[in-house]
Amino acid sequence: MSLQVGVIGVGMIGQDHIRRFTNTLAGASIIAVSDVDAKQAEKVGAAINANTYTTGEELIAAKEVEAVIVASWGPTHARYVLACIAAGKPCFCEKPLAETVEDCEAVLDAETKHGTRLVQLGFMRRFDAQYQAMKETIQSGQIGAPLIFQGGHRNPSVPGYYTANNALTDTAVHDIDIARYLLDDEPAAITVKAPRKNSRGNGLADPLLTLIEMRSGALVAIETSVNIGYAYDIRGEVIGESGVVTLAETNPVVVKTNGGFFGRVPADWRERFGDAFTAEFRAWIAAAQIGGAAGPSAWDGYVATVTSGSGVKAIASGRREVIALRDRPALYSLH
Ligand code: ISE
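^ thats the input. predicted complex w/ ISE below
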């Protein structure tokens, strides 16, 4: 039977997910929506024949809703995720899991008490074919034990409300998560450096170079550039003891003309990670149909929030900050 899904937050990303459910995915239907902007909720709901709920809590409590997608404003995530756990309903939550470490911990405590996983985090890169091939290469032993992960995360531009700290809390969190996934390791300390500012960046400290020391002694270096103009360019390389694995370019062809060669670079995250979004929801639907969750967990959301928060501290202090994580509950096995 088709999984009956409710979506909380029908802004840009919520609508993107709804389109994916309507046009591409099987085994689930969006039957309920809610948004702080009631008119927006009505409009989006009417277009897909879904019921509209005044609050996220009402949507979660509704009998017809079997599973929930939380795509609302970041500061509201934890409260909706907690309500889903209390109702025993599977929940897909966009990053961040929560903006504060305390709220993330409340989710970990509630889910651990529940006893089985209900929460899946929207770290879609784990479902990207290129990163998966990179992980398989590392696991196969072809490049020897991994020593360094270098990530480049380049956005052509960011909206006016984007702050300097967002480079860590909104953008680098993806690289933090994928580095943990690739290296099977946890972060131990973080240092953040900024060169002179990109003059295109409206005064933002952009780009940033973040160095994370992992518990095993491996290093993670992440460049975040958020006003680089030319395209949405995601770079990644793992240096091992006897080899290197690098994300290939994503263009299907190379065009040679006028004495040069050319290959397309994606315009935005939709183009670059479209297939990964579809794959993450396929996995979520299959897991939620039997009352669970797949892939990135609340633990992964917690580590991302602690790490990016320590990075924000490191920007302010100009120093290396230690990343203090609680012990990983048994519910969250290694990646
Ligand atoms: C945005 O929120 C995302 O999640 C994108 O993947 C990322 O590239 C962008 O920098 C973020 O602002």
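The mean pLDDT is 97.
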